[in-house]
Amino acid sequence: MTTVNVPAGWPATEEEARAVQDELRAEVVLDEPGPQPGTGHVTGVDVAYDDARDIVAAAAVVLDAASLDVVAEATAVGRISFPYIPGLLAFREIPTVLAALEALPCPPGLVVCDGYGLAHPRRFGLAAHLGVLTGLPTFGVAKNPFAFTYDDPDAPRGSSSPLLAGGDEVGRALRTRAGVKPVFVSVGHRVGLDGACAHTLALTPRFRLPETTRRADSLCRRALQEATIRQRPTSASAES
DNA sequence: GCGACAG
DNA sequence: ATCTTGTCGC
């Protein structure tokens, strides 16, 4: 596991953060179809917090896209770099996520984020932001519709409906399990929406959420626990 | 104007 | 996100 500090010059206010989004938004690439589902590497990233101790832990888990077997993993911990403000989630997660990705022993391939890409008030959510900073293909899978609207997709797995911001389709509500609440897929960088949905279905053979986010979620929680224990030793850790 | 709102 | 044990069900 690696340790990171908040980058110098990292936005400190909402105004600065929004300005960064408005500037970087122009760098997003939307005209690439992206990698073929079921080939290469697919990497899940996720973050866990301990606000009271000002600690954030990120995890990156690389899966073989065909077998969904774990190929590699890495974690990073740091100080919380930004408060949670809807629309500015990326500034809270990105420094530690970048460190985890850089600690991987192999190329991440396609990166799946926990959150949104273009489905965002300024069309520049976490997945788009991470894609621009790394140059990697990225998309987001969120558990909630945020402030967007959608019609409930048909019950069968694979059904979908547009996720709408006003009149624009900014993503898709995708049913990954028959009759279960859909997930909300949106493009980040260098991947098309059809491809992102195909990848999401390939990553959900058994559960509503993609294996990438499930694996990254459990790993970053474990990393947070270990970081917390190191900071404030318990009797159990002191004995061994 | 106020509240809601990814994690 | 997080607070949180056992328990119901495939």
Protein described:
With 240 residues, this protein is an alpha/beta fold. The protein has one domain (24-229): archaeoglobus fulgidus dsm 4304 superfamily (archaeoglobus fulgidus dsm 4304 fold, 2-Layer Sandwich). It is 29% helix and 26% strand. It contains 6 helices and 9 strands; from the N terminus they run βαβββαβαββββααα. A 9-stranded mixed sheet has the order 1-4-3-2-5-6-9-8-7, sandwiched between helices. The structure holds 2 DNA strands.
Give the tags.
archaeoglobus fulgidus dsm 4304 fold; 6 helices; 9 strands; 29% helix; 26% strand; globular; DNA-binding
**Overall outline:** globular
CATH fold naming = archaeoglobus fulgidus dsm 4304 fold
User: What Rg, in angstroms, do the CA atoms define?
Assistant: 18 Å
**What's the CATH superfamily, by name?**
archaeoglobus fulgidus dsm 4304 superfamily
End-to-end C-alpha gap:
20 Å
Q: Using the 3D structure, state the CATH architecture.
A: 2-Layer Sandwich
Average predicted local confidence, pLDDT: 93
Q: Strands of the largest sheet, in order across it?
A: 1-4-3-2-5-6-9-8-7
What is the helix tally? 6
Helix/strand/pairing category: alpha/beta
Beta-strand content bin: 25-35%
Number of strands: 9
Give a short synopsis of this structure.
With 240 residues, the chain is an alpha/beta fold. It is built from 6 helices and 9 strands. The protein has one domain: 2-Layer Sandwich (archaeoglobus fulgidus dsm 4304 fold), CATH 3.30.2170.
Write the layout of secondary structure elements.
Blueprint: E1 2-4, H1 14-24, E2 41-50, E3 55-64, E4 70-79, H2 90-102, E5 110-114, H3 126-134, E6 138-142, E7 160-165, E8 168-174, E9 183-189, H4 193-202, H5 211-231, H6 235-239
Helix pairs in contact: 2-3
This protein binds two DNA strands through residues 46-51, 84-87, 89-90, 92-93, 114-116, 119-121, 125-126, 140, 142-147, 184.
